[in-house]
Specification:
480 residues, Nucleotidyltransferase, domain 5, 2 domains, six-stranded mixed sheet
Amino acid sequence: MILVIDIGTSSIRAAAVDPGPGEILEVVQAPFPPSTPAPGLVEFDPVALATTLLSCAEEVVARRGAPESVAITAQRASTVVWDRQSGAPVSTGLGWQDLRTIGDCLAVRAEHGIDIAPNQTATKAAHLIATSGVNRADVLIGTIDSWAAWTLSAGSAHVTDHTNAAVTGLYSLSGDGWDETACGIFGLDPGSLPSILDSCGELALAEALPGSPPIRAIVGDQQASLIGQSCVRPGVAKITFGTGGMLDMVVGGDPPAEARRAPNGCFPIVGWAERGALEWGLEAVMLAAGSNVDWLRDDLGLISTSAESHELAAQCEDSGGVVFVPAPLGLGTPSWDYGARGTLLGLTRGSERSQVVRAVLEGVANRGVDLVEAAEADGSIGITALRVDGGMSRNPTFLRALSDATGRTVEVSPHVEATTLGAARLAAVAGGLWPSVGDLADEWRPIEVIEPRISAIRDRWSDAIERSREWIPGLSALDF
């Protein structure tokens, strides 16, 4: 049994996993939503996070016994700064969605020509140190995975892996450590940052747990989902349709020429690191996916449950010409227009509730096509298989729309959250169950396969997207 610690944006869970058959044996989950004291500010309590993490882990161990090893997967780029000696956080943690450092990002670009986004770690860490008034040499800086490893190791290990380090804005593309020039620009001491280790191996000991089991995997959440769906070879991609949507795929072992966004809006990522070798990939982002279904339910009242979106949309053969662009927070890949807004077009007096709901599901599917096309262009690799997880992967109408719109076979993950399985299987590779991460390619067992049909879902999509653009010009002018 492998104990997986999975720290999301709004909850923390511990799971007992049998990695061979991919069976999740036990889950203990606790809500842990961030606080938003003002628009654009997203914070969390690092001490409460550590306490909740340990409580969930200890409950799973009490039910299932001591694990063979521990794996950590977490939201990326959220930042904690803590005292090197006492281990006490110097302030609240800043969530990856926090936007208070937008001005700092723009100032760094103007002065140094460096593209850095507010959802990366660099400006968050600099802000926490500056506003706490601490000496930069007296603190340690970490993303959530580092804070979790510090907690589980009882303060004996300050570590991260390449998948998490690569999204901080402080990482050297050579893969051999932190970029000292970038650290200097942000006023950060490289000695405060964690050691960068492989994503799987003998990484630390979980001394805070009974028996001090080894921590054998640390990996970012989207990369864990990539591995959990066996997307470990070029040409196979996954999209996680949760609150937002993330497409990730492997492109090979050659590092990108630069860390910035590619021409079609994708970002380079490290898929995983194994025995000192990095597997590179890319990521395409949809800012709102399942949150559009939440909007139908909680704000418009057109449905009473998320599942009803399928039931209602299935009552009509098509949307009756209604088209929806899911952009309540702007558009991500490929255009990255923060000033775009959600757009509902083609309404007539005869438009029905079911058609509007279907249009929303088809709109998310169309954005999925945008991600696929952008990833193929930026990666110069055709996507032959599309695998999906996340809450919307259990919506039959949406899955049918996605397959038809992309013109590709859609394969559905057996687990709604494939992150847990991916982290467990990384730890199992370190433990010798598989020779390498690449051998996980043969472990894919979808619960459903949807073949595409001829469809008109993409008709007028480009026109609809264009109409949603630059609704708030000031936001549209921002580019990170």
